[in-house]
Design brief:
- By secondary structure, the chain is mainly beta.
- Helices cover about 5% and strands about 40% of the residues.
- The protein is built from three helices and 33 strands.
- It has helices spanning about 20-30, 190-200, 460-465; strands spanning about 15, 50-60, 65-70, 75-80, 85-95, 100-105, 130-135, 140-145, 155-160, 170-180, 205-210, 215, 220-225, 235, 245-250, 255-260, 265-270, 275-280, 285, 290-295, 300-310, 315-320, 360-370, 375-380, 385-390, 395-405, 410-415, 420, 430, 430-435, 440-445, 450-455, 470-475.
- The protein is globular.
Length: about 500
């Protein structure tokens, strides 16, 4: 492997002291403290990362399960680089199945996207693939397999891209990865997909007003923070009075989470890696594939970090501890902030410097469901029909996404960010957005990264049941398109 090494952060915690300047700082100053001058910056380095994907046994707390993971840990190794630096990651496939690595949210060169049938052929068992790309944008990202139901195993990890001119002021940061877990408990994710495809029933009690109705396809036996269930929670340790940046990633397959930190409000500063004008809230809803960064100044004690599985009967749970003497909160503790001010997309606005050019044309995308009840569509096509939305380099297009299906969908675009446009022209930069039933959103995309880029629902099971298309540059290439796993299908009632 000559020269390839593993490289990741320790415990998801990094100390930071930065000085905040400019307009963004002025908006932030009323909510969080400005800290002292930065230390001399170390010379940036990029190192090779070795990711071994293989069957393994992991502990979720009191429960040990067999799964597939990178380097025998869940989440996988954390990769940390600075914006503008190079990532070189060698995937070693020791699984009994082909696999890839997708770098979620990164505007990278197309051949490195890890999208099987689009940017690469999946890496076969016993083989390797070298990913080599530059990360252009600072922010909170993650990586995961993009083959079949593999993302609902342990095949995911975090990619944190630092800003060499970090404008935020904070003392430390923690990375929080949320997940729903069934692998090795209720069979495998393939078993779960087969049950969905064969079922004529649906649990209509899994409902959420915030998500517009039915919230999910299934319940999971465990909901995790950084690979740990509530019976043996992750603990984030620091000192009272410190300002901490929390980077929250939803790596789940079928679960949106409602997140709050007991006894504290939070100032949201980034969404899907990109900065937004700071907004102070008590809780936020995070869909699969989304990321939010927030700042808070911690009091003295031990506080519950709770992520309610929205519309389900479960929660992910961790402890934020600033005092060794404080009694730990119970995993089922009531957290009033969960029912107080919730972040909404209309609260989010990108700085004007990040506004995209105005679109020259619109493309309609209708999300739907076929009468079978287990085929989710885009413009009445499933993945095997291969919906392709053509763009040309240098233009800005507006995706008018109209959800006419009976469920919400977290829609994710590879290789780009888009701007969620409100009528006044403002809105956040994102790569994943939740669209509720009977809702229509305008997503402006600047076509500056040629390739054939997946555009799909990040509910893994909706994706595998067909909700997958692509945005492609210029004339369509031959023989390109995602092929979902095939299972026997029986009609499932329309919900």
């Amino acid at each position: 492997m000559g020269g390839w090494a593993r490289s990741w952060g320790a415990g998801g915690l990094v100390s930071r002291r930065r000085f905040v300047t400019g307009t963004f700082a002025s908006a932030l100053a009323g909510a969080v403290p400005l800290l002292g001058a930065p230390p001399a910056a170390a010379a940036p380095r990029s190192r090779g990362i070795l990711l071994r994907a293989r069957p393994t046994t992991v502990s979720l707390g009191k429960r040990t399960v067999r799964t597939w993971a990178y380097d025998d840990v869940v989440p996988g190794p954390q990769i940390r680089v600075m914006a503008g630096e190079r990532v070189r990651a060698r995937l070693v496939n020791e699984l009994p199945a082909a696999t890839t690595v997708h770098w979620h949210g990164i505007r990278l060169d197309f051949p490195m996207d890890g999208a099987p049938g689009f940017s690469q052929e999946a890496t076969q068992p016993g083989k390797t693939f070298d990913y080599d790309f530059t990360v252009p944008d600072a922010g909170t990202y993650f990586y995961h397999s993009h083959v079949g139901t593999q993302p609902d195993r342990g095949l995911y990890g975090t990619l944190i891209v630092g800003d060499p001119r970090e404008p935020l002021g904070y003392d430390e940061e923690f990375t929080v990865v949320l997940d729903d877990w069934l692998d090795g408990v209720n069979g495998t994710p393939d078993d779960a997909l087969a049950r969905l495809n064969a079922s004529t029933d649906h649990d209509d009690t899994l409902r959420s007003e915030a998500l517009g109705g039915v919230a999910a396809e299934m319940t999971h036996p465990f909901y995790l923070v950084n690979g740990r269930a509530p019976d043996a929670p992750t603990s984030f340790r620091t000192a009272p009075g410190r300002t901490v940046r929390f980077r929250v990633i939803n790596a789940a397959s079928d679960t949106a989470f409602r997140v709050a930190l007991g006894g504290h409000s939070m100032t949201v500063t980034h969404t899907d890696g990109f900065p937004c004008r700071p907004v102070k809230v008590d809780t936020f809803l995070i869909g699969m594939g989304e990321r939010y960064d927030f700042l808070t100044r911690l009091d003295s004690g031990a506080f519950p970090l709770v992520a309610i599985a929205e519309g389900k009967r479960g929660r992910a749970f961790a402890v934020v501890r600033t005092s060794s003497r404080a009694a730990p909160p119970a995993s089922d503790v009531q957290v009033p902030e969960l029912t107080e001010r919730m972040l909404a997309y209309q609260d989010l606005q990108a700085p004007s410097s990040l506004d995209l050019p105005r679109p020259s044309r619109s493309i309609a995308v209708t999300l739907g469901m076929r009468p079978s009840g287990n085929e989710w569509t885009m413009n009445d096509k499933v993945a095997s029909d291969h919906l392709r939305l053509r763009v040309d380099r240098g233009e800005t297009v507006r995706l008018v996404v109209d959800n006419q299906s009976p469920m919400w969908h977290p829609m994710h675009l590879h290789g780009h960010t888009f701007q969620v446009r409100r009528p006044d022209g403002s809105g956040p930069r994102k790569d994943t957005v939740n669209i509720k039933p009977r809702q229509r959103l305008h997503l402006d995309v600047f076509a500056d990264n040629p390739g054939e880029w997946m555009f799909h629902c990040h509910n893994l099971y909706h994706q595998e049941q067909g909700m997958m298309g692509a945005i492609g540059y210029g004339p369509a290439p031959a023989n390109m398109g995602h092929r979902p796993q095939q299972h026997d299908r029986k009609p499932k009632h329309r919900r």
